[in-house]
Amino acid sequence: MAQRFEGNTEGKGIKVGIVISKFNEPIVENLLKGALLGLGDNGVSENDIKVFYVPGAFEIPLLLKKLCTKNEIQKEFDVFITIGCVIKGDTAHFEYISRAVTDGVNKINIEHQIPATFCVLTCYTPLQAYERSGNPPTASNNKGYEASLSLLEMINLMKKSEADSKSNWLRTNSFLIHAV
C-alpha cells in the first residue's frame, strides 16, 4: 500500500499575512470574514494575523513579493492568503488582470517556497462572486474559509516534511524525491 502524507488544519502558533484588494469591497470583505473565521476555528490567534490592503487585485503580487522577500530575513509570517475579486465587464481587462494576478501569486509562491493561498475570485457575474463569498461565512459557502483550511494544511505538511527530512519522510525504496 502506498504511503500517504498530508497536513492538518491545526493553526496554533501559525503567523498569517493576508493581502487583500479593496476593489469589490463587499465581496472581498466577506471573503476576509470567512478566512478569519476559518483561521480562528482552527486555533490561529487574532494576534498572529496581519491584514494588508492594496487598491486592486493587480497590486496583490507586488505587495506579496515585498512581504515574502522581507520575510526571508525577519521570519514574521509562516503563510499568506491573497484575497481579491475580479468580475468580467465588457472589455478584455478581466482576462489581463486575472492572468497577471494568478501568474504573479503562483510565481511568488514557488520562488519563496512559502504557502500563499490564492483566494482571488475570477467570476463572470456579480452573482457568482456573491455565491462564493457567503455571509455569514461557512466552510461550504465561502472561498475565504476554504482558503484558510488549505493554507493550514499546506504549512503543516511543509513543516512535517522539514522536520522529517533527515528521516525517511521523502525517501521511498532508497529513491529520494526532490521537490523544487
Topology of this structure?
Blueprint: E1 16-21, H1 25-41, E2 49-54, H2 60-74, E3 79-87, H3 93-112, E4 116-123, H4 126-131, H5 143-163, E5 171-172, E6 175-176
Parallel strand pairs: 1-2, 1-3, 3-4
Antiparallel strand pairs: 5-6
Helix pairs in contact: 1-5, 2-3
What do you see in this structure?
The strands form two sheets. Strands 2-1-3-4 form a four-stranded parallel beta sheet, sandwiched between helices. A two-stranded antiparallel ribbon has the order 5-6. It contains five helices and six strands, in the order E-H-E-H-E-H-E-H-H-E-E. It is an alpha/beta fold. The chain is 44% helix and 18% strand. It has helices spanning 25-41, 60-74, 93-112, 126-131, 143-163; strands at 16-21, 49-54, 79-87, 116-123, 171-172, 175-176. It has a single domain, classed as Rossmann fold. Helix 1 packs across helix 5 and helix 2 (60-74) runs parallel beside helix 3.
